[in-house]
Write a structure and sequence with these properties.
InterPro entries: DUF8007. By secondary structure, this protein is an all-alpha fold. The protein is about 55% helix and about 0% strand.
Length: about 55
């Protein structure tokens, strides 16, 4: 077990590949999903302002 492993399992960074469970992947990708949604909304508002919707 490596230092910083919270669940008592092995580190996902050991070996040649990074392996995550589906739940870990969803948790890790959540900030990028939210950032993408915020960016899309900002783009929509900017488009509406520029093109006078």
């Amino acid at each position: 077990m490596t230092e910083g492993s919270k669940d008592g399992g092995s580190s996902p960074f050991e070996g040649d590949r990074i392996e995550l469970t589906d739940d870990q992947l969803r948790t890790a990708s959540l900030p990028m999903v939210l950032a993408g949604r915020v960016k899309r909304r900002i783009d929509e508002v900017g488009h509406a302002i520029i093109h006078g919707r």
